[in-house]
Amino acid sequence: MKTILLVVGKTTDSHIEALTKDYVSRIGHYMPFSIEVIPELRNAKSLTFDQQKEREAEYIRKQLQPADYVVMLDEHGTERRSVDFAKWIQKKTLSAPRRLVFLVGGPYGFSPQIHSLANEKISISQMTFSHQMIRLLFVEQIYRAMTILHGEPYHHE
After folding, report:
1. Which of 50-54, 72-76, 116-120 has the lowest mean pLDDT?
2. CATH number for the domain including 10?
3. Is the pTM of this model over 0.90?
4. At 14, which helix (H) or strand (E)?
5. pLDDT tens digits, residue range 75-115?
C-alpha cells in the first residue's frame, strides 16, 4: 500500500520544508510514502472562497483513483492519540487499499464534493494550524506511528 499526503499549495517556509522532507525520508524506511502538491490557484483573489474550494476540488479529484481510501484532515474529524493512530494505520495497511490518501485542503477548507468523496475524516487537533505547519505535524505523526508499530524508542508513553 502506498500512502500519500495530497496538499494544496507549496510550502514557502524553508525551515518547515526541510523538517518535512526529513520526516518523509524517515517514513520511507517503513513504507512507500510521498507528498503530492496541487499548485495554488492562479488569480485566486478574483474568486470567492466557494469558487476557490470548487477549483481546488477539481484538481484534487484528478489526483484520486477509484480504489483510493481517502482521508480528509478536517477539524471536525475524529481525534486519536498517537498509539491509536498507529493501530488505525496498521488496520488500513492490513485491509489493503491500493493507496491511502490523506488530504490537506486550501486555506478555506474543502468543497462539499470533496467531503462526499472522503471515506473518513480525522483531526490532528481542535486548534487551527497553518496549512504549512499541518504538513510537518502530520508527517511527524505518521513517522511516530511507524516507530510505535515497530517497537522503536521514538514514542514514550
Report:
1. 50-54
2. 3.40.1280.10
3. yes
4. helix 14-27
5. 889 999 999 999 999 999 888 678 999 999 888 889 999 99
What are the DSSP calls for 44-63, one per residue?
GGGS-HHHHHHHHHHHHHHH
Give one DSSP letter per residue of 63-81, joined into a string.
Answer: H--TT-EEEEEEEEEEE--
Quote the cell numbers at residue 46: 478574483
Burial 32-67 (b: 16+ CB within 10 A, else e): ebebeebeebeebeeeeeeebbebbbeebeeebeee
Place of cell 472562497: 49
Tell me if 127 is assigned to some domain.
yes
Question: Of all residues in the chain, what percent carry a pLDDT higher than 90?
Answer: 69
- Number of domains making up the chain: 1
**Cβ–Cβ < 8 Å for 119, 65:** no
| Angle made by CA atoms 7, 33, 108, in degrees to the nearest 5 | 15
